[in-house]
Design a protein that fits this description.
Blueprint: H1 2-11, H2 14-35, H3 37-50, H4 55-103, H5 107-112, H6 115-154, H7 159-206, H8 208-213, H9 217-269, H10 275-299, H11 302-317, E1 335-344, E2 347-357, E3 362-366, H12 373-380, E4 388-393, E5 396-397, H13 403-407, E6 410-413, H14 424-428, H15 437-446, H16 450-454, H17 473-487, E7 491-495, H18 503-517, E8 521-525, H19 529-534, E9 537-542, E10 545-550, H20 552-558, H21 561-579
Parallel strand pairs: 3-8, 3-9, 6-7, 7-8
Antiparallel strand pairs: 1-2, 1-4, 4-5, 9-10
Helix pairs in contact: 1-11, 2-4, 2-6, 3-4, 3-10, 4-6, 6-7, 6-10, 6-11, 7-9, 7-10, 7-11, 9-10, 15-17, 17-18, 20-21
Amino acid sequence: MLKTIQKFFAFCGEDNRRKFHASVLLGVLQAVFQALRIPAIACMVRALLSGAVTGRDILMSFAIMLVSIAGAGIAKAKATMLQCEAGYGTCANKRVEIAEHMRYLPMGYFNENSLGQITSVTTNVMENLENVATRVVMLVCEGLLTTTLIIVMLLFFDVRIALVLTVGFAAFLLANRFLQKAAGSMAGRKIEADERLVEKVLEYLQGMAEVKAYHLSGQKSRELNDAIAANVKVNTDMELTLIPRMNAQNLVAKLTGVCMVAFSCAYYCAGTMDTLTAVVMVISAFIVNASLETAGNYSALLRVVDMSVDRASEILKTPQMDITGEEIEPENRDICANELEFSYDKRRILDGITLRVPERTTTAIVGPSGGGKTTLVNLLARFWDADSGEVTLGGRNVKDYDMDSLMKNYSFVFQNVYLFHDTIANNIRFGQPEAGMDEVIAAAKKACCHDFISAMPGGYDTVIGEGGASLSGGEKQRISIARVILKDPKILILDEATSALDSISESSIQDALEHMMQGRTSIVIAHRLTTILKADSILVVKDGVIAEQGTHDELLAKNGVYRELYETQFRKVIEMETEH
């Protein structure tokens, strides 16, 4: 129990930990004020037993009770405020910290971990910490501290009853240990079931088009329903497992109070305890019972708190790429790779690739699917680190650069475009947040998206759905290209940049892209043949190696892999484009 509380406090960060510690101290103060009810009652009981209740006795009892109630109320209010600030602050900071940490994780992490798992940590797990952990930790601390203070106070009244309470408290902690053990076995299942449920919900919603197109609604609904049913079962099992143990724990708390009352009555009847002390002991028994029940009932959730902290910490402990480089302005934008090797899941993807992309030239990368083209580009941009070999920009290893200063040199247009749930203008200025509206519109015009944006009711202030769900594939692609045009980078990396466009838009945007590539270092995973023909150099990547390299004419003359690709994929399209 105490280890979990310590772990939670360590997880919170220094500022919020101080607030929690202050809250605990205020909880101790609150417990002291609450314990003052005992002398207040004792004062009045003594006067009643003497048969001469004076105004002084009444005022004394009233004053102590007033101090107890007022002090406890003020301490509780301040402690609660600190708890809320620290709890919500911790979760807000950790969500930001997790997001910042994931920025510098290798892309392989996102391949190995599902979106559902990652989302569950930042939603369900953090919500557990936000709403459950704060209250659970503080109420458990409050209950334990109140009981401890009452034990200390009882030592001044009757050591025998203090020892009875101490034994009962120890028995309560032992019962709680068994409860924690049972909760520990269930907490992992609960969090895994929550992750599975989030994963299936996201999968169902994101794949809705495929579900409908292939009549998979029944199958996918069953998978989702199974995840929901499994989640219900885990939560039900958790309740059925913990409730009997919680009842046993509460029984120990009640029996502790009963024993305190029984021993007090026995000592009173034996004449070894006066009436006043006996009455105080009985009242203390009820206070202790309430404190232990509060601590016990909430302590059942400590294992969920423990597992939630572990889940969040797992992400934060995942090794990042080395981002502690310098802020470097490269002398030139030459990109070189030397003996690059890279494997994924023990499968060799790239095998000793060496290349050079001179500054202000365009290099097209072609080859069969699965040959390693996209992986190569990801390594050149340092989305991943190679297993061996090195990539340099401007003669410096990309690992020498601070990640942010490295990324300032690049802009990307991916095959799969992601737009954020924000205005179209903000999506365009994503890489250049300070850009003015005139610059945004100018970029949109060059990317051939100004007309359809202007036709929308909100124009550039139209808020698009998450992932650009309210736009067509071509519209999303054009907005992403406008984003690149606005950033005006020194290095362009294009992966099927015009794949989702109709022929008219493709022609217009291709002209804009070709204009933009002039004077820049450009790397293009090429599927459009005119791009290949205009490239300064063509790399043919097959089976993880550069099979051939040269210009279009040079490669055709070799009668190798490129000519085979040309004959099977390119020639007819080139002839059609030439005719048009």
